[in-house]
Specification:
Layout lengths: L13 H7 L14 E7 L4 H9 L4 H9 L1 E5 L7 H10 L3 H4 L5 E4 L4 E4 L2 E4 L4 E4 L2 E4 L4 E4 L6 H7 L4 E6 L11 E4 L13 E5 L12 E5 L2 E2 L2 E10 L8 E10 L5 E6 L2 E6 L2 E2 L3 E8 L3 E7 L1 E5 L5 E4 L3 E2 L9 E2 L2 H10 L11 H5 L5 H24 L4 E7 L1 H9 L18 H19 L4 E6 L5 E7 L1 H7 L26 E4 L3 E4 L12 H17 L11 E6 H4 L11 E5 L2 E4 L1 H4 L8 E3 L6 E2 L9 E5 L13 H8 L15
Parallel strand pairs: 1-25, 1-26, 9-10, 9-25, 11-12, 27-32
Antiparallel strand pairs: 2-35, 3-4, 5-8, 6-7, 10-24, 11-22, 13-14, 14-15, 15-16, 16-17, 18-21, 19-20, 20-23, 21-22, 26-35, 27-33, 27-34, 28-29, 29-31, 30-31
């Protein structure tokens, strides 16, 4: 991921959704027991994988190497998770599937939105006092274009099971089973908003996004608080729903009891609760929605500190469409119990903001990975034929947060502490590979792959500040308080702006709402000029180049979604990445600054610098396999034709 929680305002997906959700030559002959298993490990790096395998620390990777092959896997431009996984799913470049970043912008309104899904409120409502009664359906639309390769398999009668595929919310109609992954919101419609309840007035979060801090008072050893749910789209004012709860704190021991909606949860200090089901009333006596939450009692004395995970969609009774068929989520719940449905469950923001410390975050990460492992165990046990895919972001998320533990040059280096954490994630997924190998026979193709690799993130480059200082972007001197970053621009004097992790857009006449740049002639010259100047940027501290490559959209993308692309993709050098504030268009005072966040590793760089991993239990004939090749490979292995628009070919 990569990216942060809370790119957009709360409720972007929940408000509408909760209201009414109620020809390639094949290489094989598909037999009755033909099988393909793909394990998708987000962020698995080929250099680290190769080193650990040579050191004997990844025995199952070593076994797979002895039987088959290992290659770096070419990633997408840009090498961002939703972009890369959409390419894996469709076999298309971004010009075909239309996903270019975590964040896109509406050129006509100049407002940002999440790139993979859009919610639409009911078109017709009747107001009755404070209430809005919908007369038509709201809907949530998957914005990824192109045909997933597993649909082609299903059309040919091949069974498919897709567990936690990214950029696949909501999952489309299918003859197989799908559980959505990255892009699935929490119940508030965000990438994940934690809640932190404390009476410690001295606590100041180190960041502003990703969660909320609630100041509480302890009276007679008791704390009263409220857990926030989704915005109520049945109310005219759209006020947020909530669930009240009480915490009774033992005066002598570090123990507390949480009482919420008739359920009591007893926790010792430093203990995580099991999942707790919480109901949020939408229409009195008529409709409510169910969510699940875990609590962590960080401290009972002398201060009260309680963390609550983002409220997740309840898999036993989903308020939003997270599975196909609908009953699949409940089926998995019946076997595994409650589980994270949130697409990006590792709470990296809680760690960055100082709400969870390193040890506590790793505890939470272990809970997440245990769920992913049990999902794989469940499906692998009953897998007899067809296609099985499982995704986990465990390696990626730990890599983001603990690269500082293996990088002495990191501004937030741990100086030796936690140095084995990143390695342990590779050992964790190696265990998954071992389970798959135990089920592999002569009729099974096993692929282990990642969407990209990893690199250090030492210095943050504010693209919009650079554009401002270079004379391409201007701020409105009379900008109003509370305006969003894009609302602060003087558009009459702005010719280019950055949005997303790697996108740069021209303020084109006839495309942007207040466009001033003529598309022909002027636009072409401006693109070439900005690209050349970015490649000349040097870090004044080290003299190193900041930008490795600049990609022109019209030269690298092709397909029906090309019009949605940024005009330029900025490929940063190792050690550099866009500043967080610049992602949504903000220009700060400094062009370059040390990255002092615990988010210390990244891959939002030039694609050539961060290839992914490809392991197979057969020899790979492709010299330079790429993500676009994997969909055709799976189809070929199961004797199915490639779909229209696919660009690659079988790696075998």
């Amino acid at each position: 991921m990569n990216g942060r929680r809370n790119f957009l305002r709360r409720g972007a997906l929940s408000a509408a959704g909760l209201a009414l959700y109620g020809g390639c030559t094949t290489s094989r002959t598909a037999g009755p027991t033909r099988k393909v298993i793909v394990l998708g490990f987000d962020g698995m790096d080929p250099v680290i994988t190769g080193r650990l395998a040579r050191e004997g620390k990844l025995p199952n990777v070593a076994t797979l190497l002895a039987r088959g092959d290992f290659r770096p896997l070419g990633t997408t431009v840009p090498p961002l998770s939703p972009v890369a996984w959409a390419t894996f799913t469709t076999g298309m470049n971004p010009g075909g599937h239309g996903i270019y970043d975590f964040v896109h912008r509406d050129a006509t309104t100049l407002s940002p939105y999440l790139s993979t899904a859009r919610a639409e409120a009911p078109g017709r409502t009747v107001r009755m006092g404070d209430w809005l009664i919908p007369l038509s359906s709201g809907k949530i639309t998957l914005l990824r274009e192109g045909k997933p390769f597993w649909e082609t398999l299903e059309e040919r009668g091949v069974p498919t099971t897709i567990v936690r595929a990214p950029a696949n919310f909501p999952p489309g109609p299918s003859g197989g089973k799908q559980l959505s992954g990255m892009g699935t919101p929490d119940l508030q419609g965000t990438y994940g908003l934690y809640a932190y309840f404390t009476d410690d007035e001295s606590f100041k979060p180190t960041g502003e996004s990703g969660g909320e801090v609630f100041r509480v008072r302890r009276q007679n050893h008791q704390v009263r608080a409220r857990l926030l749910g989704p915005a109520n789209s049945f109310r005219a004012d759209g006020r947020q729903t909530g669930a009240d709860f009480t915490v009774s704190i033992d005066p002598r021991h570090a123990v507390a009891k949480i009482a919420i909606q008739g359920e009591d949860v007893l926790l010792r200090q430093g203990e995580w609760s099991p999942w707790v089901r919480v109901s949020f009333e939408m229409l009195p006596y008529v409709q409510s929605v169910s969510g699940i939450v875990r609590f962590y009692l960080k401290e009972a004395h002398p201060h009260f500190k309680l963390y609550a995970t983002p409220v997740n969609i309840d898999p036993a009774n989903p308020a939003l469409p997270i599975a196909t068929p609908d009953a699949y989520a409940h089926e998995m719940y019946e076997v595994l119990g409650p589980f994270y449905t949130q697409g990006m469950p590792h709470d990296t923001k809680a760690l960055s903001n100082g709400v969870l410390d390193d040890h506590e975050f790793l505890q939470q990460a272990a809970l997440v990975f245990d769920e992913h492992s049990r999902m794989f165990d469940f499906e692998l046990e009953r897998f007899r034929r067809g296609f099985l895919f499982l995704y986990t972001d465990h390696v990626d998320q730990i890599g983001h947060m603990f690269w500082r533990a293996i990088d002495a040059a990191s501004p937030t280096s741990t100086r030796g502490a936690y140095r084995d954490v990143v390695e342990q994630t590779y050992r964790d997924v190696d265990g998954m590979i071992g389970k798959a190998l135990a089920r592999v026979d002569d009729d099974t193709t096993l692929l282990v792959m990642s969407d990209h690799g990893f690199a250090p993130f030492h210095r943050a480059f504010n693209l919009n500040t650079w554009l401002q200082q270079a004379g391409y972007l201007a701020l409105d001197q009379n900008r109003r308080r509370g305006a969003t970053p894009l609302e602060e621009y003087n558009w009459d004097a702005t010719r280019a702006y950055g949005l997303g992790l790697q996108g740069l857009y021209l303020n084109l006449r006839g495309r942007e709402q207040f466009g001033v740049v003529r598309r022909e002639g002027e636009g072409d010259r401006l693109v070439a000029e900005i690209a050349a100047r970015l490649l000349e940027v040097r870090d004044p501290r080290t003299g190193q180049k900041v930008v490795e490559r600049v990609y022109r959209a019209t030269e690298i993308f092709k397909g029906p979604a090309l019009a949605q692309a940024p005009d330029l993709i900025v490929g940063y050098a190792r050690g550099y990445r866009v500043a967080w504030d610049s992602v949504l268009g903000k220009a700060n005072e400094a062009v370059l600054a040390d990255n002092t966040d615990k988010w210390s590793g990244d891959h939002s760089m030039a694609a050539e610098l961060v290839p992914g991993v490809l392991l197979a239990n057969r020899k790979i004939s492709a010299r330079q396999p790429s993500l676009v090749d994997l969909a055709p490979t799976v189809l070929a292995e199961l004797a199915a034709p490639t779909a229209a628009g696919m660009e690659g070919r079988s790696i075998f």
